[in-house]
Amino acid sequence: MKKNWHLMDADANTIRALTHSLCCHPVVAAVLANRRLDTPEKAQAFLNPSLSQLRPPTSLKDLDKAVHRIARAITAGENILLFGDYDVDGTTATSVLLEFLTTCGARVSYYIPHRLKEGYGLQPRHMAEVAAPRQASLMITVDCGSGSHTAVDAARAAGIDVIITDHHNMQDTLPAALAVVNPKRRDCSSGLEHLAGVGVAFCLAVALRKHLRDNRFWEGRTEPNLRSLCDLVALGTIADMVPLLEDNRILAKTGLELISNARRPGLVALIEACGISNRPAEADDVAFRLGPRLNAAGRLDHAGLSVELLTTDRMDTAHEVAHRLNTLNASRQELEKGILADIDAIVRRQPELLERRTLVLARPGWHEGVIGVVASRVVERYYRPVVLIALKGDQGRGSARGIPGIDLYACLAACAAHLEDLGGHVQAAGLRIKIDRLPAFQLAFEEAVRSVSKPEVFIPSIAIDAVLNFEEISENLVDQLESLMPYGSGNPEPLFMARDVAVVSSAWVGNYHRRMTLRQPGRDLGVSLRAIQFNADPGSATQTRFAAMAFALRWNRWNGSRTVQLVVENVAAA
Fold first, then answer.
1. pLDDT, position 432
2. How many whole angstroms separate alpha carbon 346 and alpha carbon 51?
3. Is the separation of the CB atoms in 201 and 96 below 8 Å?
4. Distance CA 324, CA 520 (A)
5. Tens digit of pLDDT for each residue in 344-358?
6. Which residues, in sequence order, are bridge partners of residue 488?
7. What is the crossing angle of helices 88-103 and 304-311, to 10°?
8. I want to staple 283 with a disulfide (CB 3.0 to 4.6 A). Which of 178, 274, 486, 549 is the partner?
9. What is the pLDDT of residue 120?
10. 3-state helix, strand, coil in the chain (%, to 5)
11. What domains lie within the chain, and their CATH numbers?
């Protein structure tokens, strides 16, 4: 796919100042400057994140109400019910509060709805079917609940107090809960609006622990070290693709250190199942290995499997559940391949679909548990907002994914008259729709996107941090670049550009990846480097020279050794 390259031009004086003050490589200084970390103080805070730098959670609206009510429930021995979402963010948030409240001696249980049988979120029937049988007098939602007005009303009618903890976009009217702890509330000035659901749950645990300490609850008890929960927080934060900056960066980096030295039985077993033992964990491991396996439970079976894995203290149970998740993940991959093949066939038969700025496709038989992942892949392939809808009877359940520069949720909200339900974020959303509303929705969504976009938005762009010739690449530089990790939303992996690159040798790895040895003949310095291009265009196999190449720099770790490797992002033909 054609991409626009944007070469960033950091201020030379800023680069020199950062290089001097941080004693770092000028290329690293340029990357920091490009990310507006343009003072030594900002850069130091970014490079050395610490839990002590976290913003106090007390500024979260309604947090004090939530803390006081939960503390009362703990001391009175009330039954507390955690109600979570079925994705990684939801299951990790559930696990965080389940583990913490159990440590507090609370009478706590959890419930996560079945994605296919019950759908998303807290519903009125959950009061009679779940809360009442457990004699719960307090319900805490995690990563959901902000739009559950009727369910909260049903809870109040049943005498159940509800505390909502969530991070999804909200309507102006709040549910009538005892507390609504959501940093996206318009009247919340905490500055924590980028937290994932698990981050909000962690803030609740932090505040509750302090409240209990102030009330001498921990006297005679062991006060828990909440750092031990950061492995769970990192899993949910990275998997939910929230910006890995500020508080999220601190939580993610701390958690990745714990994952790298995993002691939690479930993580030990899951890491072994993924085959990523014996090396430091990276954000990519969560995004593409650990996260998908945890998500597979909620997509194809029940998300309770993930909570069981993450909270068990038995190694045999952990291995058993991790094996089950591995099997589910393999099934998920096969289902995704089938749906993606369907979509490619539809586009081949109807190429006029690509004349639109949106792609809305619906079909019976598609598995609604995996269409969200497929939608992300379709966006990568056709680069426009995508809505995929699994049809069943007269209803459809859809997953939507967007592109940078377009507020997907706002565009879908503009079509609310055609939808039964809607929830989500700027770049991802879920919806329900009746089949007879599909044609009108397609037109309305296309119009909504057209009204807020220009043609250039639909050409993907990549930001190049600096021109970097091969002789400037060293092991020291790659080591320093690793200090910028974890990469993710808001903190993309640095990309560099080299001109006039020749392929000395190449071979295909599997059907899609091209491994190469590269050099810059025009510079005639004899420096050659290994490279890998993932999902390469098969037509490029005959190309032996490129006018320019955009690439990232990583360590290729294998069998205890490591070598510098270029990861090719894009090429320009010679």
1. 94
2. 49
3. yes
4. 48
5. 999 999 999 999 999
6. 491
7. 50
8. 486
9. 82
10. 45, 20, 35
11. 4-8+462-573 (2.40.50.460), 57-260 (3.90.1640.30), 350-458 (3.10.310.30)
